[in-house]
Amino acid sequence: MQSRQAIQARRRQRQKQQRMTMVMVISGVVLILAALLMLPSIRLAMTPVGEIIHPELVERPLVDGSAMGDPNAPVVIHGYSDFGCGHCANFSEGTGLEIAETYVASGQVYFVDHSVGLLLGSEVSFQLAEAAYCAADQNKYWEFHDYIFANQLTIYSSTNVPVEKYVTAFAEAIELDMDAFSSCYKSNAHRDQVQQDQLDAVQAGINSTPSFTVNGELLIGNLPFADFQAAIETALSQ
Chain-centre distance of CA 57, in angstroms? Predict the structure, then answer.
């Protein structure tokens, strides 16, 4: 007949094994739940960016970061745009190029582009603005800018591809130093600059994009070249 001590010892051993089994089961359930929660992120990270539009790149005159032209030009235009704004894309591909060809190249206008990021409430725009300024560090802001606008509809309508994938694809397409670019982008090196752009826009009375100041005078919207021409000629005459 077994002793009372032996029975109690077996009971304690059985209880210990049951507790260990329960811990293992709970741990397994936690790991499964964690994997299920992480699955969408893993799927996004593995999703290819697919085909992107490669725009015909236009060389701007006297490029310096996000600015172009002679800093000592008699007329200074500050443009405030959002990479998710369709009117901004239209301005860039139309009137913006006419201003560059007619007035920037001739030394009469100095044009500075500001990507306002979250002014219209888009986190994607904020990330793209940071990336564009990282490209500006390698003096390829305008090339990166053109790639974003050329692929604007795809970027902002995509729910399966994170914006970082497009950022990398554009940076590679314009042949940036990828180590330097990645370090800049991942460290949010230009976050303060994007936030300052937004602050400057608000202080200038801007609440929509695209908007511009021509020697301090506010112009709002994707206006035709003739409207900018009139404002520039008035500023030149003064």
Answer: 19
pLDDT in tens, 23-71: 565 766 555 554 445 434 434 444 445 789 999 999 999 999 999 999 9
Percent of the chain residues past pLDDT 70, beyond the cut: 78
Total-model pTM: 0.78
Sign, CA dihedral 117-122-124-127, equals: positive
Rounded to whole angstroms, the Cα distance separating 195 from 186 reads: 17
Of the candidates 112, 106, 113, 114, the residue with the CA atom closest to the CA atom of residue 233: 106
Nearest Cα to Cα of residue 126 among 78, 185, 179, 169: 185
Task: Name 124's Cβ contacts closer than 8 Å, sequence gap at least 6.
Answer: 83, 84, 155, 156, 163
